[in-house]
Amino acid sequence: MMIFEDILKDVGGFGPYQKFLIIIFLIPSSIVIPWFSMSSIFLSSIPDHWCYVPEVVNSNLSIETQRQLISPPHDHHCSMYDIDYASLMESKNYSIDPKWPIRECANGWQFDKTNYDETSVSKWNMVCKDDHYSSLVLSLMFVGVTVGTPLFGLMSDRVGRKPTFLLTAFVIAVTDIGSTVSPNFELYLVLRTLNGLCITTIYTLAFIILLELVSPDIRARVNGLATTAWTIGMCTLPLIAWLTRNWLYLSIATSAASFCLLLYWKVLPESPSWLISQGRYEEAHAVLAKISKTNSKTVHQTDHLMESIKKLSDELKNQKSDEEKASPLDFFKYPKLRMRFFLITTC
Fold it and tell me: Any transmembrane segments, and where (predicted)?
């Protein structure tokens, strides 16, 4: 029985063509993709904060003295002394009376800017009684991950790896920058959820596209390169966050990287094995012929390549007719499948 790897062997399973894609596509994309999924750690970072009192903030007192005048010892973040601060600042008597009454923050919060000028938490005041919103943002993002993984997986099988990869890159870029400039918190939540739909799938697709173009004995090495590049990307993200200091600029940097991934539409091939499975012989032949030519093979100069493609396609059709047709409803029919899906998406 013929398999796709037989055709791949004829055109070259690891030649200049594959090495070019690894250098120009897999490694760069694997470096920037973790920026999309892990940037939420910095975007949603919770800076140190205390009640905002304009009379005190506009004074020449040090930050430490301001905090002592504003915040009671037992609650530095969400409470303030209920006194006339205008009179206090005018008197210049900064002695603290333990008997002063206490109230909740009346004018919002002041945020420490030692590490960040602004994050989503300080932008939307997700602190104190509203601190659960920061957890809600991350929870909804991972709801998006849970939905997006099977959704885009199915889409890549229906419309192809390449268009699905480019679509996820576009969605990430738009939702990333869109959530940052969102005029209201509700839209921000929606966009972060949509962003979560794609952040896992985009890495998986980049990896799969290369795996389907190299011979089986090389795939472990490709996996090692991809994970090493991912680690490098993880290590560079804190540096980018430190340099930008603002969630807006960090989002611009990550969304710009995502837009750059769209430039691969010219050099990135569609998976020839997927094209063959869809009966798209001419397109599969064009991709495989290009691989053969780049790898200095001669199979594309004969009719053997097209004959092999058609033979494999016929065998795949016969194989499909003998198997039970799968559908998304299988997810609800088989408990083991549901359990495995849950473990993969949550662990």
Answer: 20-43, 133-152, 164-181, 187-210, 222-241, 247-265
The string of DSSP codes covering 283-336 is HHHHHHHHHHHHTT--GGGSSHHHHHHHHHHHHHHHHHHHSPPP-TTHHHH-HH
Using one digit for the tens of pLDDT, what is the confidence trace for 55-87?
A: 998 888 888 999 999 999 888 899 999 999 999
pLDDT band for 327, please (50, 70, 90 cuts): low
pLDDT tens digits, residue range 142-160? 899 989 988 998 999 999 9
> Would the pLDDT of 222 be above 80?
yes
Structural domain boundaries of the chain? 1-45+133-322, 49-111
Q: What's the pTM value of the predicted model, to 2 decimals?
A: 0.83
pLDDT for 95: 87
Reduce the secondary structure of 157-219 to three states and give it as a string. HHHCHHHHHHHHHHHHHHHHHHHHCCCCHHHHHHHHHHHHHHCCHHHHHHHHHHHCCCCHHHH
Q: Tokens 């090493």 appear where?
A: 228
Question: 3-state DSSP call for residue 12?
Answer: coil
φ, ψ (nearest 5 deg) of residue 56: -80, -40
d(CA 43, CA 340): 31
Q: DSSP letter string over 105-117?
A: -SS-EEE--SS-S
The yes-or-no verdict on residue 331 having pLDDT over 90 is: no
CATH class in words for 1-45+133-322: mainly alpha
> Using CA atoms, how far apart are residues 273 and 66, in angstroms rounded to an integer?
66
| Alpha-carbon gap, residue 163 to 180, rounded angstroms | 26
- Tokens 């990307």 sit on residue: 233
Residue 6's closest CA among 332, 230, 316, 250? 316
Q: Within a 10 A sphere around the Cβ of 110, how many other Cβ atoms?
A: 22
